[in-house]
């Protein structure tokens, strides 16, 4: 059993998912990708992760809804919301998450947030 | 001899002592028979009280007939008989009795012994006799003492007298007993003992009857045939002796007791008939009885008084309760009147009136029907009908307790009150021709209130009975609503559901409300009439008169240009605004022909002409004119009427400058377009963000992996440019969406609180929560995001309600320094300090359900979004949350 921290990346856009996956792997994480909220929930029912990144704008269930659902059965899951907008920060439903990061080609904020949450 | 004395002394306790004494003597002296006599000095006779034989009648009769034996015996000599001798018993030379011995052969020796014995026994025998009488008397006295207790246990005079008679007959030893009881001036038989009912007829006695009058000073004993004759005649029975006594209670003669014929008892008595000792016994018993009777009467009087007092008190208390209720109703009535006075709408007014009449906080009737009077058709027409049973109304009625002020409750609830279709359809079907009904005519024309009951229904006319049938009620009150001079309508009230009857106080209150409501209705009708007239005035003829009356100043102060054109097509009025708008003075324009207005007015003048045909006002909106730059006007053409001959004398043209409004509208349209554009921009920008992120991200990754420094440099350029693009995108997105979603506006915080409370109404009732509201400033206008503040208050109220049961929740709003505040306090176990610290942190909750986000969100809204405060304070048995919203200009 590896002692790497496991992270689930939930992102509908393949290339964005690939970028995040590669970047986090480089940071030494064990990364798995789910391409929709529904898929993420299926995976989470079978497997535990140290942290979950959630894209808000997804077809089907959006990130906020997924976060709410995850909380229903994993109260202590670490959830990071990713979004192009900053204004979701003021949406109450985003409070179900532990952190909120604005999407950017510079992924350092995401990495720091992950470190902080799991440190 | 000594032995004999000892034996004799022993008999003292014996009931049958004299017989035993005789037996002892007979045995000792070997005599065949010994008899023992007592000397009764009064009657000069010897009476047998003891014998050694079992048969005593035979000897007794024989001995006493001998002449002169008392003298012999008194001298201390014995008397000889054929078969024996009588030996005297003397005490200090006085004869007290004698002993008879039957024996022919009595020796002198024995005789001497006997004489000696009698000498020695004398004092002792006398003692024995007296002891016997005394012990009998003693027993009787003891009995009398106990009698008081028995009497006191009885609680009516009749059974007391009955018991008394039975006891007195038994104790004294009478054959018969009668009690007459006083009833007014006569004495009637109340009790008898020893007399067979029906056998003898005992007469009633007049209060002056000799039997009564002779006993006035105490007890009277009748002995001897002469004395008892009148009793024999009166009672028609055999009377040997009798004893009578009046029974007085508190100095009043209440009854009379008569005892007839003495019966022999086991004890010795010197008299055969009633004697002084019997009298004193009777006296004592009667005294006891009197005392007990007096007690009884006093007791009864006392309890009577107490009962009266109690009743008085109860009546007094009832009075206070009903007075208090009356005062409450009077104040409710005042509130109803107050609420009615503030409205200018007939429908609302009637709703307030009816709601007030059936509300428990109001007058509390079950149903109230309003009929309006139509003077022209002489009809009363049903308008509205309220019933406490109505579903919609029930909710509204329950809400009355949320309001502190009943008048405000009526005002506010009546506005949103929806009427039940069923009842009001029924109400509207009611029409009554009041001139065709004597009763309704009395109500409407003579302003009388009518109280219809089950009992007086048959005296009513057909219309009343028909109304009762429609309403399915048996008792109701018709109240005329009286204006200044006339009846405006009629209220019909009943208590069909509870079945309560109308009391005098109810009717008084209704008379008051009839006056007050009538005046309010009249004032609303007047208002409506004036309003209507004003509208007509503005539109038509009256404007001419008003125009004429208007001074220059008024006309000029109007914020519109007014030009009046006469029938001769000349200008007859030109106000100050017209001078301003069109740049020409009044002096210059008055009397000029319309042509002088110039070609810019050409179209307008055509419209003005058409008013003559339309005979009505014509309005052009946002009409553009270029005089000093391009401007827009609302132009109103109103015919100038001559009322008397019903002819249009000219046209009033009114110009209102709407340029600014027009510009605003245009601006708004532009903004809407821009907003739509922003929406598109935002969407495009968002779509670009992901690819940009991918390009930039991978460029950076490629740069890290590239070995060629030139390639590294190129990739760095790509990365930098992507970053720049991302910056531009962020600005576009933030701009188009604005920062956050906050929408600040001015609103009444109290109204918001009321709105929130309405949502919890059922819960509050269900959990039996007592709600205390204190709006210190009302209305309390704040400047904030209404939705967000509502979210906070909703959250706090929800928490308080869920944490309270059978308790009190106090809500307060007030102003202090630079804040407008709201606090909610509920009675509960105070929140402990360690919890208090964490209560505003996300996901911290002590509740089983709930996300634990309510308070953190509230904190965020208050502190981050409104720059305000949220605080928790606790007390001995309460928790209180307070929010403080900065006043406008303080928070930003």
Question: Which stretches of chain B of 5+ consecutive residues score pLDDT under 50?
Answer: 847-851
Biggest sheet character of chain A:
5 strands, parallel
CATH topology of the largest domain in chain B: Beta-Lactamase
Give the overall average pLDDT of chain B. 82
CATH architecture of chain A: 3-Layer(aba) Sandwich
Beta-strand content estimate of chain B: 15-25%
What would CATH call the homologous superfamily of chain A?
Answer: Response regulator
Low-confidence spans of chain A: pLDDT under 50, at least 5 residues? Answer: none
Provide the spatial order of strands within the biggest beta sheet of chain A: 2-1-3-4-5
Order of helices and strands of chain A: EHEHEHEEH
Shape of chain A: globular
- Measured as a percent range, the helix fraction of chain B is 40-55%
Number of domains of chain A: 1
Helical content class of chain A: 25-40%
What is the spatial order of strands in the main beta sheet of chain B? 8-7-6-11-10-9
CA-to-CA gap between the ends of chain B?
140 Å
How far is the N terminus from the C terminus of chain A?
Answer: 20 Å
Tally the helices of chain B: 27
CATH architecture of the largest domain in chain B: 2-Layer Sandwich
On the 0 to 100 scale, the average pLDDT of chain A is: 86
The SS-based structural class of chain A is alpha/beta
Description of the structure:
The complex is a heterodimer of chains A (119) and B (892). In chain A, 38% of the residues lie in helices and 20% in strands. Chain A is globular. In chain A, α2 (37-46) runs parallel beside α3. In chain A, 38% of the residues are buried. The longest helix of chain A is centred in the first third of the chain and has 13 residues, at 14-26. Chain A is α/β, with parallel strands linked by helices. In chain A, α1 (14-26) links the parallel β1 and β2 (30-34). Chain A has four helices and five strands. Chain A has a single domain (6-118), classed as 3-Layer(aba) Sandwich (Rossmann fold), CATH 3.40.50.2300. Chain B is elongated, with a radius of gyration of 60 Å. The longest helix of chain B is centred in the middle third of the chain and has 66 residues, at 276-341. Chain B is built from 27 helices and 29 strands. Chain B starts with a helix and ends in a 6-residue tail after the last strand. In chain B, 49% of the residues lie in helices and 24% in strands. In chain B, the strands form six sheets. Chain B has a six-stranded antiparallel beta sheet, sandwiched between helices. In chain B, strands 14-13-12-17-16-15 form a six-stranded antiparallel beta sheet. Chain B has six domains: 2-136, Beta-Lactamase (2-Layer Sandwich); 154-301, Beta-Lactamase; 342-532, GAF domain (Beta-Lactamase, 2-Layer Sandwich), CATH 3.30.450.40; 542-657, Beta-Lactamase, CATH 3.30.450; 664-737; 744-886, Heat Shock Protein 90 (2-Layer Sandwich), CATH 3.30.565.10. At the A-B interface, α1 of A face α22, α23 and α27 of B.
